Amino acid sequence: MRLFWTLILIFLYNGYSSEGVNSTLSARPKVVNVGCMLSFNTAVGKVTKVAVEAAVEDINSNPSVLGGTKLNVISLDSNSSGFLGIVEAIRFMETDIMAIIGPQSSVIAHVVSNIANELQVPLLSFAATDPTLSSLQYPFFVRTSPSDMFQMAAIAEVIAHYEWREVIAIYIDDDFGRNGIAALAEQLAKRRCSISYKAAMKPEATLDDARDVLVQVALRESRIMVVHTYPSKGLDIFSMARYLGMIDNGYVWIATHWLSTILDTDGPLPPDKKENLDGAITLRIHTPDSELKKNFVSRWSNLTGKAGVTGGMSSYALYAYDTVWLLARAINEFFNQGGNISFSKDPRLTEQNSGSLNLDSMSIFDGGKLLLDEIYKVNMTGVTGPYGFTSDRNLFRPAFEVINVVGTGFRKVGYWCNYSGLSIVPPETLYSKPPNRSSSNQQLHGIIWPGQTIEKPRGWVFPNNGRQLKIAVPNRVSFREFVGKVPGTTDSFRGYCIEVFTTAINLLPYAVPYKLLAFGDGHNNPEDTELVRLITAGVYDAAIGDIAITTNRTKMVDFTQPYIESGLVVVAPVKQQNSNAWAFLRPFTPRMWCITGVFFLVVGTVIWILEHRLNDDFRGPPSKQVVTVLWFSFSTLFNAHRENTVSTLGRIVLLIWLFVVLIINSSYTASLTSILTVQKLSSPITGIESLVNTKDPIGYQSGSFARNYLIDELGIHESRLVPLNLPEDYAKALKDGPSHGGVAAIVDERAYMELFLSTRCQFSILGQEFTKNGWGFAFPRDSPLALDMSTAILKLSENGELQRIHDKWLSGIACTSQNTKLEVDRLQLKSFSGLFVLCGLACFLALLIYFVMITCQYCHHYPESESSGGSSRSGRLQTFLSFADEKEESVRSRSKRRQLDATSVRSVDQNASVNGSRIDRSEIYSNRVVSFGESV
């Protein structure tokens, strides 16, 4: 029974499998219809039509591609019209077509994609590069060439590579142009660049329209032009730009890949048109060299000859050829997966009263989703190289070539790929290496710019529209040597900062019309931070003067290179410290004096211990020994000790101590000399740290950033801060002091304080600068004028002109030249701690070795005291101290006598044994003891 059911199941399975295969084979028709929408009247449409027909011929001649099914491409002409494109798309949908190749225009693709989504017919376009044609909004739209998003990224990379910051976009005002420029703006923003002006043109713009647009462009600052348009309109724009003198030195023209398409398809251009493009940069979609591409290129002249078409082969023709192959492979997999060509009515269309539109004849392609999935799964190698899609449905590794139009031809100056940016080697050679987007790795060959120059254009000029720059100048009431209004005038200023600005701006290679405007009421110093904020608000175009470069301000504007270094310092009253009777104690701190004295005593004691048993100079009555230790200790300071050291350990300790004394003596002498010969100033405030720890009031310059810094960074309470305006207010507040309504110190920038102190010697800068900044001129963010002014300031610094201006306005050096200094650098204990540690360690080791040696010697001479359990601990200690106090010669003599007595005892014992007489050992030992006592 089990065998019977097994045979039945095998029979049913084979029958089912047979039916499935037959069903699949029966679903594979002899011919499949595919639509193709092109603009036959354009150069791109003509060459891509030839490429599509060649691909169809190659596919149909190879039965293995579609398994015997023939591919039939129905071509219709959209005539570059959105309306006709819709009509042609509707006509396609009335037939049994599986997919549509095209359309050629992004504008038409936006419209047709909606129809394709509704009827689920894949739409494969190799020329609609609008980045907003996304697979999220139009899931049945398949872009088979690189999106303009990558092209705009390549252009932005080129602009950033040459350090330009603003560009002008010239484009056709339709979906293709607007969306492409929006993508460019997004890519530029990632690199801190921007589009300063958008020059839009009507799709049907004439030469007069182009002239009007370019005239407005010429009045702008930027000289970097990005042209994103159609081939026919692009040549008109360049022609009019040439007529207006805009294809010349200083200009940069970057065209999207419409220009490379013209250069590839139209062949050699007439000299007049080629002259209009001289120095321009354009992009071309990169297709790596391969045998497939080489064979197809070699066939191109025959293919165009048969079709009666004249023109070269562009990258669009290569992508059109691969698009047909992509679709054929997807259709083959579609049939292999059991798909079949069937259509169903759209209920929403049948419910409508379509009238003469005949909308109910359009049907939904039932296998559209399956075919779409198979399209994105295709992974092949075509004439354009490796061909496949990423997870976001863009082509794998898009790349472009950077082309420079020169003379009668053009040359390749580099590549861009999404993998590693700009390079001078083909991208396919970089894919095997890790991506490297460092600035040093971004390279292009030299470019010949408009005007036949190889020098990189600056990228901008001052606008020639008659508008003057509104430059704000702080209307200061103090320190007018830096910046101040000329009395009796409204817009004339003088001072160090003003002369630096005018000298630097005269170095620019172009004229800059400007007008200086006073900022402030003239009674109080203005707030520089508020002045900077008004630049961001558009009230002023720039600001010059004594404006400190701080972190918060750099977030609002761009500053030039600092033209003077400055930083916050503390200024307080100081008094001269004259010499007195106790001036000799100043070199050392009290702790240093105490530690030095202790070490003198310690070293003297250690030497006495090491020398006491050997050296007669260190023996005698206790009073004499105390005097000897004190004398020996302090006489080493002058190397005047008369006692000699005889022990090895004592000599080592003394040698190290004399070295320490030498260093201490030399340092003391040098410090005392400085105290007695150099003028010293003293103050209870030694710097910002000591000032913060007090509760005394602190003065600052009104309008300075010092106030916020003291509050926010140092945590000083606002009630302690006193605003001051004039230098006279500074002097009065410092003289009065905290006890009389003044301030303990003033915190201000060094540049002001050096000028203030030049005639006021009773005050001084205490401590070091606790901020590091400088003064610069402020301009709006990403202003090219800031960069050029920085270059001019550097030139002034290199040629010495900046120093000359400084000496002219800030030459007062009456007190600063004295180099007065607050005395805060007394010799500290920590400066000599290493020497004291070394000396202490030597003393400790010498004593340790000494006590080990004397202990061993004691144990050798008194072995019975160690083994006797009856003797008391105090008795043993007393015996040890007596032994340690005993002279070394006595110990050695006693040791010799003990050895002689032991020898004599052994002789007596031997004689008694030979004579047979017995002698009482106790008597012998008692005699030995008596003899030992007498000898003592």
UniProtKB/TrEMBL annotation:
It is a multi-pass membrane protein. Pfam families: ANF_receptor (PF01094), Lig_chan (PF00060), Lig_chan-Glu_bd (PF10613). InterPro entries: ANF_lig-bd_rcpt, GABAb_receptor_plant_PBP1, Glu/Gly-bd, Ionotropic_Glu_rcpt, Iontro_rcpt_C, Iontropic_Glu_rcpt_pln, Peripla_BP_I. GO terms for cellular component: membrane. Disulfide bonds join 761-815. SMART domains: PBPe. GO terms for molecular function: ligand-gated monoatomic ion channel activity. The chain crosses the membrane at residues 590-610, 652-676, 832-853. Residues 470-812 form the Ionotropic glutamate receptor C-terminal domain. It is found in: Membrane. Residues 1-20 form the signal peptide. SUPFAM superfamilies: Periplasmic binding protein-like I, Periplasmic binding protein-like II. Keywords: Disulfide bond, Glycoprotein, Ion channel, Ion transport, Ligand-gated ion channel, Membrane, Receptor, Signal, Transmembrane, Transmembrane helix, Transport. Its main location: membrane. One of its GO terms (biological process) is cellular response to oxygen-containing compound. Glutamate-gated receptor that probably acts as non-selective cation channel. Belongs to the glutamate-gated ion channel (TC 1.A.10.1) family. This is Glutamate receptor. It comes from Nicotiana attenuata (Coyote tobacco).
